[in-house]
């Protein structure tokens, strides 16, 4: 049991298992704890969000095609994905969350959306 607030150090009044004196201190403490303190993490998350938005924009019906130049012209970065899915036949799909792509011939990509998520 914390006798003093973990955020501001004030004496806590109330339940024995209380860690904070107020909602403000609890929120402030957790915001500091969960903040993307490193630029690397923040930059990667921003990159993933951008890639996701691009795939979502080019694939509104959950299944479509796009060219490599279409993806690149919108700023897509092929280095940032969240998962890889390999089918039983060995076909490799690359995903950014539930939006994915499959490299095809002649710099074309099949864009897909994973519907089971």
Largest sheet: 5 strands, antiparallel
Round the mean pLDDT to the nearest integer and report it.
92
The run of helices and strands is: HHEHEEEE
Task: Estimate the global geometry from the Cα principal axes.
Answer: elongated
Protein name: DUF2116 family Zn-ribbon domain-containing protein
Give me the secondary-structure topology:
Layout (H helix, E strand, L loop, with lengths): L22 H12 L4 H20 L4 E5 H6 L9 E4 L5 E5 L2 E5 L4 E6 L4
Antiparallel strand pairs: 1-5, 2-3, 3-4, 4-5
How would you portray this structure in words?
It comes from Mesonia phycicola. This is DUF2116 family Zn-ribbon domain-containing protein. The structure is a single chain. This protein has 117 residues and is of the alpha+beta class. The chain has a domain at 39-113. Helix content is 32%, strand content 21%. It has three helices and five strands. The protein has helices at 23-34, 39-58, 68-73, and strands spanning 63-67, 83-86, 92-96, 99-103, 108-113. It is elongated, with a radius of gyration of 22 Å. The two termini are 40 Å apart.
